[in-house]
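Work Package 3 (structural annotation) set out to generate three-dimensional models for the target panel prioritized at the project kickoff. During this period the team completed the workflow that converts sequence records into discrete structure tokens, so that structures can be stored uniformly alongside our sequence database. As a representative example, we reproduce one entry of 397 residues exactly as it appears in the project archive.
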Amino acid sequence: MEKNILILATTNDFLRKFEKENVKILQKMGFTVHFAANMNEPDYVSDREKINAMGVITHHTDIARSPFLIKNNLKALRQILNTVKNFHIGIIHCHTPVGGLLGRLAGKFSKGRLVIIYTAHGFHFFKNAPLVNNILYYGAEKYLAKFTDILIVINAEDYNAGKKLKIKRNGSIYRIYGAGYDGDVFKPLRGDERKKFREQLKVGDGEYLMVSVGEINKNKNHKIVIDALIKMRDTGKDISYIKYFICGDGFFTEKAKSYIEENNMESNVFLLGHRENIREITGCADVFVFPSKREGLGIAALEALAMGVPVLASENRGSKEYMINGKNGFLFSFKDPESLIEAVEKIKNLSLNEKEAMKIFCIKSAKPFEKGRTSAIMKKVYEEAEERLEEKNGIGT
């Protein structure tokens, strides 16, 4: 029996960001791995050649991030169904809201011939979410659950919500710990490394470096950090020694540049764009800031913790999985710059002994989220999916 699996997401950079370990597991199991996404998005990076070099077959689809771009997504659904037919796909592992929608619709139209795995990287319905989310997205998930063989979630709140969804008969639900960070890469920098990298980044000995990593969009909420710095300056606090680096790109980049210029923050806030050397930049930070309004988990914050860098994180269901206020950083409200200012002041004013104790706890708190733990669970997921595929094909019966 041919063993072909299709990993489905929205953008071309998804696979290398989150699925490299899964690709290795699948290839060791004898699967040919296919990847379908919009290979033109995001337009600031193209991973297609690197993905092909991993032995993965890529397929462009016209999938759009918004579920309301119906024309694009109907076209993408037809493209996915053609890929399934032409390449004898047996399993679809779908990700992202729209990828999850189209992947499971493909399962519906396959009339039970496909095994469908869906990873929810944070349900769009959740406690204290906008009412429209809890109506529309819950309704969609409730309907699509019927075509889901295996549901994977990444936090406790979503696990409890997932158990209430009526997934396909005899379906399974698993909880993983995100994609898992690479503990061989994300570990504390040596003193000489940190000094060298800070010099390369033009960060002086007396300067205080704050770092965020993430796409520049409304949800990632970098604006609250800029607003907090503006407020600190305008109330007479000296912020001349503070630098805030944002690593990432996105639709809001130009808007962010304009906002920084309008508020004369060019000497404090720096947009570094898409970067490959995240380890070096995060490892140089005095504090990592994770201000998202909504997160399923937040691998960038976990990578920072693993490097011994304390985190200032907004209170959301993802960060609450690993943040312990006052132990590995501080929590703040994503709506309130004053709350962030208070957190910044707390962490800056820690004694040397307190900082060292926090560093040790940061590393300890990240440990459960290393990639090995997630990979062990994902191997079980794929073994179950293979068994289901064999049953559908009448093998071993």
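The two ends are 14 Å apart (CA to CA).
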